[in-house]
Amino acid sequence: ARKMHRRNRPFRTEDLSRMMYNLSMTATEVVQKWRGEEEEEEDIEADEDDDFFKKPKTAQSGEDEDRYIPVYDYQELEEKWEDEENIEALKSRFAIGHASGKGGDED
Amino acid sequence: MSEPSGQPLIRFTGHRHLTTRLLLATLTGRAIRISQIRSSSHTHPGLTSAEVSFLRLLDAVTNGSSIEFSMTGTTLVYRPGLITGSAEGLGAIGGVVRHELHKECATRGVSWWLIPLCVLAPFSKGNVNVILHGEGCITGATPAGDVSADTVRTAILPLYRHFGIERNIELRILKRSCAPGPGKSAGGEVQLVFNHQVRLPKTLHLLNAGRVKRIRGVAYAVGVSGNNNARVIAAARGVLNKFVPDTYIYSDVSSAPLVPSNDRNNPSGKMKGAVGFGISLVAESSTHCFYSADVASPPSGGMPPEDIGKQAAYQLLEAIEKGGCVENTALDTMLCLMAMGSEDVGRVALGRDVAGSEDFVQLGRDVKEFTGSAWGLRDGAEDKEEVVVSVVGRGVGNVGRKIA
């Protein structure tokens, strides 16, 4: 039970370092699992069911080329960055106004 | 070096991360075999023209490389040679390697060639001076997700400073071009001058991402009215001004590049290459970490400049929010250089989302295949927003400069 509990908490650094060199998982699976994005059991069952049909599908569907610029839903982003809360939260990452000199020296 | 030295071929499958793998193979001098390259595709199996072109470029800047394809191009064996750079008589004329990107290569932006080439350059025996040109050379951002050459110049090349590589590095954009529509040509031209070769890059300890102190950018309009630039810039500033007062975006208006028209009646005829506009934004932090964003008008057109400016600004904010010292675009560059450093532990802090990306995991695995050392991960010190990656350098560095 404890194990299950641990697994459900995403974004733990130890988990990533453990999974990173576990070659039985693909990189995509590692990332999904680490982010806690997928329900594993369901996926495994689905794989067993139609393994034969699924493979070519995944290979063809979607953008499976390397890319540098990430794909975003800009509609969503616009809403996100119109929100005052998000703007305020991000402002700590900037050196603003008079604090710019000070912030730079501290770091 | 290309002799089979008893070391077995390192085997990979699939077409993903091809440039990174070839890059690591060249740097470590290990021969690799990549199989099942798009073997499941019925329409385009095997290597794409862009990938073949990249192999040719590798061949041009190295001496003694051997590249073998299978009949269908789905299997590739690459035995790397010595990185010689633009040495006379080995592909270079007048100290410059001119590498033509053909029309079919227009699926990728020129940055796709440039970024790996830049990683090779510090380990070269001689100076590196490469001109990429031709009908497939796109300097702008592309729908395939390649950044613009401006971003390479302003956000990737300055990163080399962290490794003690900073002199005589320049990327000149000689002719701009945007992503062409299907069947059209681009016709851009860029020159990479990389004359600072090192024995070993310095060990990196970059744990503090600092604060963003300024934003710079380049808005480019190729063959269209410069008014588009003004509108893109105004929209981007509208979003970014809330955050940083020190925002400056250059405007670069150029005419459309001329490409051979391939008209039988007029063999010397020229026609205009792809037109369009776009913007590259780069945020610099107080500790010289860079975050970039790139948006360009789609080849089909029909996107107002305001949207492009805004999207670029949002993309930049998103990259800054992810945090860490390295953004996704620069991941390959930074971590490859760290892995090639002296036999010491280098550390770098990454944002959670950057470390949790597929590219990062795969890169870690590939590097382990080549160098045998795995990366260590632990939580960042202050708040748990970051992951600190420790990379042990390989300590071999530049084979060509060993004696010097």
TrEMBL record, chain B:
Keywords: Nucleus, Ribosome biogenesis
Subcellular location: Nucleus, Nucleolus
A Gene Ontology molecular function term of the record: RNA endonuclease activity
Keyword Membrane annotated: no
GO cellular component entries: nucleolus
GO biological process, one term: endonucleolytic cleavage of tricistronic rRNA transcript (SSU-rRNA, 5.8S rRNA, LSU-rRNA)
All residue ranges annotated as the RNA 3'-terminal phosphate cyclase domain in the record: 11-346
Alphabetized SUPFAM superfamilies for the sequence: EPT/RTPC-like
Keyword Nucleus on entry: yes
Gene3D superfamilies reported for this sequence: RNA 3'-terminal phosphate cyclase domain (3.65.10.20), RNA 3'-terminal phosphate cyclase, insert domain (3.30.360.20)
UniProt domain RNA 3'-terminal phosphate cyclase insert: residue ranges: 208-321
Family recorded in the similarity comment: Belongs to the RNA 3'-terminal cyclase family. Type 2 subfamily.
Classification via PANTHER family: RNA 3' TERMINAL PHOSPHATE CYCLASE (PTHR11096), RNA 3'-TERMINAL PHOSPHATE CYCLASE-LIKE PROTEIN (PTHR11096:SF1)
Name of this protein: 18S rRNA biogenesis protein
Source species of the chain: Sporormia fimetaria CBS 119925
Top-level taxonomy: Eukaryota, Fungi, Dikarya, Ascomycota, Pezizomycotina
